[in-house]
């Protein structure tokens, strides 16, 4: 079996397509060598050796030793030096390289092959004794740490000791003799810690490093990282052994990193940094200020340090050629590492470069224009989730931030405002022209007006599907939820965190994309939705199979949804309309009524208001389908919580406060989410269903008369678990439609369907489909009830569950495909069997999550529905799922 693949001197045994076998780094080193780029020669030990190693009690295949020896010999021949040769030693680097880059694993050992003898040879050959000794002490430190496991700080202490004793401030001030002294101290550290001497035999060093790379595949950190990023254990890592080149041999040497295009804006300019006379780690370590590659880059950043373009014009020119060649070859923006040794350029790495979403979009579009990639490829180049960064205002990246706490990134975007602690205060101050930040322990439906008035919302309790998070996402307000360190004192009008106190009226800023909470007012920049963004979305729409709808109910949100390209409303939560302005009074009157007549009287007041809402929505959606869900939450959500509020309401309604309190007590449930809500409530009070159906149909008929075009309304019943629950309400709705038809002379066009949000409904979908013309998967409740996990209270320990790998993701954010997903599959299959072609969609928060959207595509759903601001994300994700 072949275990070792060589590269260098313009050829290679591997190539870029062999990433699985050679790892990302190895495959690209081979590829660069193949296309004639100057790559120091070396070889890659394949990932199959890693697999073999773990399958066979941590032993290597028999042929490996010989193949490594052959590989080393080939390198020696190309370079003209010998590994372990005291006179003129070959030194190598050893690096890990999995299929995808993986922090948490052993990274790099440089200068391997140095010992007490070879260091003298290196000193003579390079003519620089200080350089040789510095390389040796760096090697002992690196190898001692990553291979032998001696703690880094033990070496750092010795370095500090020598600096103190000699009065040196910078490492570079140490002389050759100081370094020789330091080397002895380093060796003593190893002897003391391990009870054995630092290995002097280069072969032993090499195999030690190879073993360390393979062992690092199973470190705790690596395992955790793999879990979090869905990287299979079976992939294994490769090991790259490569001849050293030195960027630290004098002023004609350098090392640097670059991106072939600007990774933050996407502009087609060469963007990078370098350091003269330095080794790779110095650029990263931040000890010296790196210099810009180009004169333009230097000017843009106002730097005084000379650019590479000025200092090494010839090598810079070669590097520019490499840039063009790599981009044309890989057809993507590359992130490269290079070293210049005595005015000769060497390429050490290339890989596809990480970029901001803004840059990803611009690069994809410009590469289409340049003829490098197709439109379909461009669609695949943009990470849907990352669109979040550009659909909302974001913090000015140049601005300073004073972070005081962190919560969950519940609704993206950045916002600043003065702190207020109640929804009423938020509304009052906003009306007076202030920008406000609503800070609450948690929010409830009665806070909606304040949330609307606020720039952003900060809560100290609750998770990603808490009320605050869901509503904020729907409204496009920035929200940080569950910032558990913050203690709110409503009475004092302050909150405290990490010893700081913030008072009502103080400015704070939140970043709903990172969860950060900052003091003061941090400037933001606005999103740009035309141009390249619009082009990518258009190309995505051409690829997409599923429709994308929005969850929205206020005219403002519905309009936003349209603007972002929603093709219908997938969920209009009518209860949100019950809180607006005066209508909460009528709603409370209905709840307090002692009999049906009383309720009907109150409902009659609500009817025209609901009808008005629906007319507005139909008007904005212009004939696109609108799914309206009948009342879902338990009634007590509409009653106040605080005692003084009861008095106020009693006065408004002209009744005895005691009566209101008694009714509230009567409605109280210990487990309201599993209680008297949804279709259960509607079956107890069918007059509510009747009023809502009437409002919908009257609005539809009115719109049809006005526009001449029929409105397609889809009436949706929530929380069904038994077919009969649906049947009874269906009859009420049909009767109401007939009545409206008789009264108006126009027959409303509608369908009746149900949410599937309880496990029993999913299992009994076959019979439920006899009465339902569509299903909409309410995966928020379906997740809650499948796991038996409260969507409002589980955030705290779910974070811990994720950290410990008990759950890979928060199931309220990313659909649990194994469990909840199986219920969806079952429901889809059984529903379709009863009613072929039944319309299926999803309207839980997962409808805007790319991972979950790809699952929906696999189930052949007809549409996904999500918050208005996630519509573009869903359009792109649905397109990628279909490609
Ligand atoms: C759901 O349960 O997934 C759903 C969409 O309904 P709600 O979030 O309003 O309970
Ligand atoms: Mg629900």
TrEMBL record:
Domain Pyruvate phosphate dikinase AMP/ATP-binding: 62-300, 317-369
Described purpose of this protein according to its UniProt entry: Catalyzes the reversible phosphorylation of pyruvate and phosphate.
Entry binding sites for Mg(2+): 757, 781
Domain PEP-utilising enzyme C-terminal: 530-881
E.C. numbers: 2.7.9.1
GO MF: ATP binding; kinase activity; metal ion binding; pyruvate, phosphate dikinase activity
InterPro entries with a match to the protein in the record: ATP_grasp_subdomain_1, PEP-util_enz_mobile_dom, PEP_util_AS, PEP_util_C, PEP_util_CS, Phosphohistidine_dom_sf, PPDK_AMP/ATP-bd, Pyruvate_phosphate_dikinase
Annotated protein name in UniProt: Pyruvate, phosphate dikinase
Necessary cofactors: Mg(2+)
Domain PEP-utilising enzyme mobile: from-to ranges: 435-515
Native organism: Pacificispira spongiicola
Pfam families: PEP-utilizers, PEP-utilizers_C, PPDK_N
Entry keywords, A to Z: ATP-binding, Kinase, Magnesium, Metal-binding, Nucleotide-binding, Pyruvate, Transferase
Catalytic activity: pyruvate + phosphate + ATP = phosphoenolpyruvate + AMP + diphosphate + H(+)
Positions of the catalytic residues: 467 (tele-phosphohistidine intermediate), 843 (proton donor)
Lineage: Bacteria, Pseudomonadati, Pseudomonadota, Alphaproteobacteria, Rhodospirillales
Broad enzyme group: transferase
Family (UniProt): Belongs to the PEP-utilizing enzyme family.
């Amino acid at each position: 079996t072949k275990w070792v693949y060589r590269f260098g001197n313009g050829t290679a045994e591997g190539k870029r397509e062999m990433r699985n076998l050679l790892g990302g780094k190895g495959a690209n080193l081979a590829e660069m060598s193949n296309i004639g780029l100057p790559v120091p020669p070396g070889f890659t030990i394949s990932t199959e050796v890693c697999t073999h190693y773990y399958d066979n009690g941590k032993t290597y295949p028999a042929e490996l030793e010989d193949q490594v020896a052959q590989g080393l010999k080939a390198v020696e021949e190309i370079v003209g030096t010998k590994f372990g040769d005291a006179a003129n030693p070959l030194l190598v680097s050893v690096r890990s390289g999995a299929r995808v880059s993986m922090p948490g694993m052993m990274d790099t050992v440089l200068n391997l092959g140095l010992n007490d003898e070879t260091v003298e040879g290196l000193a003579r050959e390079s003519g620089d004794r200080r350089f040789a000794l510095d390389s040796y002490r760096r090697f002992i430190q690196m190898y001692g740490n990553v291979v032998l496991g001696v703690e880094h700080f033990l070496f750092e202490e010795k370095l500090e000791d020598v600096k103190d004793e000699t009065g040196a401030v910078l490492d570079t001030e140490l002389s050759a003799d100081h370094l020789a002294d330091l080397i002895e101290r380093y060796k003593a550290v190893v002897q003391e810690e391990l009870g054995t001497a630092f290995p002097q035999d280069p072969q032993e060093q090499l195999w030690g490093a190879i073993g360390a790379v393979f062992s690092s595949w199973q470190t705790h950190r690596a395992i955790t990282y793999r879990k979090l990023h869905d990287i299979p254990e079976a992939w294994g890592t490769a090991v790259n052994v490569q001849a050293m080149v030195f960027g630290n041999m004098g002023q004609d040497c350098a090392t640097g990193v670059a991106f072939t295009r600007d990774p933050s804006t996407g502009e087609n300019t060469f963007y990078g940094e370098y350091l003269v006379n330095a080794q790779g780690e110095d650029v990263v370590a931040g000890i010296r200020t790196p210099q810009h590659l180009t004169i333009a880059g230097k000017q843009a950043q106002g730097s005084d340090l000379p650019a590479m373009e000025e200092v090494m014009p010839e090598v810079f020119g070669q590097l520019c050629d490499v840039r063009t060649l790599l981009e044309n070859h890989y057809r993507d923006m590359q992130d490269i590492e290079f070293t210049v040794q005595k005015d000769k350029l060497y390429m050490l790495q290339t890989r596809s470069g990480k970029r901001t979403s803004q840059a990803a979009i611009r690069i994809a579009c410009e590469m289409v224009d340049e003829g490098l990639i197709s439109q379909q490829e461009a669609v695949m180049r943009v990470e849907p989730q990352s669109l979040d960064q550009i659909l909302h205002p974001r913090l000015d990246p140049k601005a300073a931030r004073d972070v005081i706490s962190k919560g969950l990134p519940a609704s993206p975007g950045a916002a600043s405002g003065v702190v207020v602690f109640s929804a009423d205060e938020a509304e009052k101050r906003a009306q007076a022209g202030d920008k406000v930040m609503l800070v609450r322990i948690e929010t409830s439906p009665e806070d909606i007006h304040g949330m609307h008035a606020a720039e952003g919302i900060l809560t100290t309790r609750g998770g990603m599907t808490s009320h605050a998070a869901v509503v904020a996402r729907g409204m496009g307000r920035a929200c940080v939820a569950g910032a558990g360190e913050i203690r709110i004192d409503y009475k004092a009008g302050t909150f405290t965190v990490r010893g700081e106190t913030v008072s009502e009226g103080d400015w704070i800023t939140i970043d709903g994309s990172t969860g950060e909470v900052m003091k003061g007012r941090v400037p933001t920049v606005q999103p740009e939705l035309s141009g390249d963004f619009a082009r990518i979305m258009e190309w995505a729409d051409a690829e997409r199979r599923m429709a994308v709808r929005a969850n929205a109910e206020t005219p403002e949100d519905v309009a936003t949804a349209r603007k972002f390209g929603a093709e219908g409303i997938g969920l209009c939560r009518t209860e949100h309309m019950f809180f607006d302005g005066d209508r909460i009074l009528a709603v409370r009157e209905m709840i307090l009524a002692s009999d049906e007549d009383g309720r009907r009287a109150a409902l009659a007041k609500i009817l025209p208001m609901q009808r008005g809402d629906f007319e507005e929505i139909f008007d904005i959606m212009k004939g696109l389908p609108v799914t309206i869900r009948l009342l879902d939450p338990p009634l007590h959500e509409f009653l106040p919580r605080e005692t003084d509020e009861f008095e106020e309401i009693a006065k408004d309604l002209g009744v005895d406060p005691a009566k209101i309190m008694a009714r509230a007590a009567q409605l109280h449930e210990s487990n309201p989410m599993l209680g008297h809500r949804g279709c259960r409530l509607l079956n107890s009070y069918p007059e509510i269903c009747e009023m809502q159906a009437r409002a919908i149909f009257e609005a539809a008929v009115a719109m049809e008369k006005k526009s001449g075009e029929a409105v397609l309304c889809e009436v949706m019943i929530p929380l069904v678990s038994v077919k009969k629950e649906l049947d009874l309400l269906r009859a009420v709705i049909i009767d109401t439609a007939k009545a409206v038809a008789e009264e108006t002379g126009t027959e409303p066009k509608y369908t009746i369907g149900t949410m599937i949000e309880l496990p029993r409904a999913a299992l009994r979908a076959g019979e439920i489909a006899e009465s339902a013309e569509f299903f909409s998967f309410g995966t928020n409740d379906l997740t809650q009830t499948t796991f038996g996990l409260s969507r409002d209270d589980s955030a705290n320990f779910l974070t811990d569950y994720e950290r410990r790998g008990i759950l890979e993701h928060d199931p309220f954010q990313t659909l649990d495909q194994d469990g909840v997903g199986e219920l969806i599959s079952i429901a889809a299959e059984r529903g379709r069997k009863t009613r072929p072609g039944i319309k299926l969609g999803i309207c839980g928060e997962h409808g805007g999550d790319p991972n979950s959207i790809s699952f929906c595509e696999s189930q052949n759903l007809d549409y996904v529905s999500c918050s208005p601001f996630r519509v573009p994300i869903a359009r792109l994700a649905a397109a990628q799922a279909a490609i």
